[in-house]
C-alpha cells in the first residue's frame, strides 16, 4: 500500500490517500486539543497509544458484527481504513452524567443514566459543534431517516459491547462519541475510538482516565491512557 498525499489534517489525525481509491491511511499525531482547538499541546506517545487502542477496539467491534472502517495496523502511528463518505454528525451515548449534559441540564455528575441517553451534535468547529435533533439531520440532508436509524442502532450496540469490555477491565464507560460514514451504500463506523473521544472512570475510585485529564489540567494524561490500554490488554510498543 503506497501512502500518497495528505487529504485532510484534523486536530489529532491526518488522513492520506493511497494507491487504492477505496482506502485511506490515518496517521495518529501527538497533538492533543480541547475546547474546539483553543487548547493544543503535544503529548509524547499519544499517537502510538491512540492508534493501537483504536485498532484493538475496532477489531473487537468488528468481531461483534459492527461494520467499521478499520482494515489493519500499518505502523505505531498509522492504520489502513476504508474510505467513507463521512456524515457530519456526532453520535454521543451517555451511561453516566458528565460534561456538556451536566452543564446543559444541571444533572449531577456521576448519576447513572438508565436507559443511556443518545444525543446528536453537528460537526462544525466554527459553531462549537451544536446540539441538534433527528429532524435537523434529515431536513438539512446530513443523513437520511433510514441512515439515522442505523446509526442509532449501531451506536447502542457499540455501547453494549464496550460497556462490558471496560467493566471487565475495572472501568466505567461514562460516555463516548462516534462518527459514521457510508461505504458502498452501507453505514459504517468511522473515525476513531480512543480515550480522546470517551470518558472512562476507574470503577472503584472514579478517577478520570480519559481526555478530561487534559481538558481539566489534571496531569498524567498519557499515563492514564496507557493504564487503560494495559488493563484492556491492548499491546503497546
Ligand atoms: O462534551 P460532551 O460531554 O458532550 O462529550 C460527550 C463525549 O463525547 C465525551 O466522551 C467527549 O470526549 C466526546 N466528544 C468528542 N468530540 C467532540 C465532542 C465530544 O470526542 N467534538
Automatic annotation (TrEMBL):
Record field: catalytic activity: 5-amino-1-(5-phospho-D-ribosyl)imidazole-4-carboxylate + L-aspartate + ATP = (2S)-2-[5-amino-1-(5-phospho-beta-D-ribosyl)imidazole-4-carboxamido]succinate + ADP + phosphate + 2 H(+)
Known pathway: Purine metabolism; IMP biosynthesis via de novo pathway; 5-amino-1-(5-phospho-D-ribosyl)imidazole-4-carboxamide from 5-amino-1-(5-phospho-D-ribosyl)imidazole-4-carboxylate: step 1/2
Molecular function (Gene Ontology), one example: phosphoribosylaminoimidazolesuccinocarboxamide synthase activity
Keywords recorded for this protein, A-Z: ATP-binding, Ligase, Nucleotide-binding, Purine biosynthesis
SUPFAM superfamilies referenced in this protein's UniProt entry, alphabetically: SAICAR synthase-like (SSF56104)
A Gene Ontology BP annotation from the UniProt entry: 'de novo' IMP biosynthetic process
Highest taxon listed in the record's lineage: Bacteria
Presence of the UniProt keyword Nucleotide-binding in the record: yes
E.C. number(s) listed in UniProt: 6.3.2.6
Cellular compartments per GO CC: cytosol
Database matches in Gene3D superfamilies: ATP-grasp fold, B domain, Phosphorylase Kinase, domain 1
Annotated family: Belongs to the SAICAR synthetase family.
Protein name: Phosphoribosylaminoimidazole-succinocarboxamide synthase
Organism whose genome encodes this protein: Halopseudomonas litoralis
Amino acid at each position: 500500500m503506497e501512502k500518497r498525499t495528505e487529504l485532510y489534517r484534523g486536530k489529532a489525525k491526518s488522513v492520506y490517500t493511497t494507491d487504492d481509491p477505496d482506502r485511506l491511511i490515518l496517521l495518529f499525531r501527538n497533538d492533543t486539543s480541547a475546547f474546539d482547538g483553543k487548547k493544543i499541546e503535544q503529548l509524547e506517545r499519544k499517537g502510538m497509544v491512540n492508534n493501537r487502542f483504536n485498532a484493538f477496539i475496532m477489531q473487537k467491534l468488528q468481531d461483534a458484527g459492527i461494520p467499521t472502517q478499520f482494515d489493519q495496523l500499518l505502523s505505531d502511528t498509522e492504520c489502513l481504513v476504508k474510505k467513507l463518505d463521512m456524515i457530519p454528525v456526532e453520535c454521543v451515548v451517555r451511561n453516566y452524567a458528565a460534561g456538556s449534559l451536566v452543564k446543559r441540564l444541571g444533572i449531577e455528575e456521576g448519576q447513572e443514566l438508565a436507559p443511556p441517553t443518545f444525543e446528536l451534535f453537528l460537526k462544525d468547529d466554527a459553531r462549537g459543534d451544536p446540539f441538534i435533533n433527528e429532524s435537523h439531520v434529515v431536513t438539512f440532508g446530513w443523513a437520511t431517516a433510514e441512515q439515522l436509524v442505523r446509526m442509532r442502532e449501531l451506536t447502542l450496540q457499540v455501547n453494549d459491547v464496550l460497556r462490558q469490555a471496560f467493566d471487565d477491565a475495572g472501568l466505567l464507560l461514562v460516555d463516548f462519541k462516534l462518527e459514521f460514514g457510508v461505504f458502498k451504500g452501507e453505514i459504517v463506523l468511522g473515525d476513531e475510538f480512543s480515550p480522546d473521544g470517551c470518558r472512562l472512570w476507574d470503577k472503584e475510585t472514579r478517577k478520570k482516565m480519559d481526555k478530561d485529564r487534559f481538558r481539566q489540567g489534571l496531569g498524567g494524561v498519557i499515563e492514564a491512557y496507557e493504564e487503560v490500554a494495559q488493563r484492556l490488554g491492548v499491546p503497546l510498543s
